[in-house]
Amino acid sequence: MIGRLNHVGIAVPDLAKACALYRDTLGVPVTAPAEMPEHGVTVSFVELPNSKLELLEPLGDASPLRAFLEKNPAGGMHHVCYEVEDIIAARDTLVQGGARVLSSGEPKIGAGGKPVLFLHPKDFLGTLVELKQA
Amino acid sequence: MIGRLNHVGIAVPDLAKACALYRDTLGVPVTAPAEMPEHGVTVSFVELPNSKLELLEPLGDASPLRAFLEKNPAGGMHHVCYEVEDIIAARDTLVQGGARVLSSGEPKIGAGGKPVLFLHPKDFLGTLVELKQA
């Protein structure tokens, strides 16, 4: 059902510092920050040869990242994102098996312009899982 | 300095159940469990098209995963592993920049038979980082 590891999401308290760490210290290309108000985040992607990291900083008071960063002030691994060929078919199969979809249950448009949705971490080994239409 | 995302490490309380989730529910090939007593873990790899997940279950009373699973009983994202061309050169450059290497500071042999070492999460955005000789 799932395909490529599209990215690993890492929540950070300071996106500029996080970008500098990956770009300058670890020597990897990093994209310019992009605000995504409908998700409550500002994101930069770290472009590794075979996958990406998504560095996420809270945007706005209602950002879903704020509670995570209160528990993890230095930042931390936040989610993994897998590509699927058909996000509706994948969702429906997982829901039939008992998995829970977060929020409305309907896909939203994500950072790459493709539909995404999030699955409950309790159903996936304590890991927040994002599915993204390939 | 860093290259491919070799794998994402996910700590789990029950490796057999975790393997079944990825193999049967999510439809991805999963390797047979392998015990690594020197690391205190039993591991299976989830073989995604472009990278891997390393599912980790504690092995032995002194396993470094036990404290993590006490805080996260359902499991959770544990580390990311990046490939480097020269693990000693990478370590020395990072240490000169102020980063801390865990344990003895010397590489050990990891799951794929290659030298690995771990970097302090406080120096890497709250994320435990494994470096692996490519």
From TrEMBL, chains A, B:
Which InterPro entries does the record associate with it?
Answer: Glyas_Bleomycin-R_OHBP_Dase, MeMalonyl-CoA_epimerase, MMCE/EMCE_epimerase, VOC_core
Residue ranges of domain VOC in the record: 4-134
Which UniProt keywords are present, listed alphabetically? Metal-binding
For this protein, the record's SUPFAM superfamilies field holds: Glyoxalase/Bleomycin resistance protein/Dihydroxybiphenyl dioxygenase
Q: Which Pfam families match?
A: Glyoxalase_4
Instruction: Tell whether Metal-binding is among the UniProt keywords.
Output: yes
- Does the record carry Transit peptide as a key word? no
By its UniProt entry, which NCBIfam families does this protein fall under?
metmalonyl_epim
Q: Which family does it belong to?
A: Belongs to the methylmalonyl-CoA epimerase family.
What is the protein name for this chain?
A: Ethylmalonyl-CoA/methylmalonyl-CoA epimerase
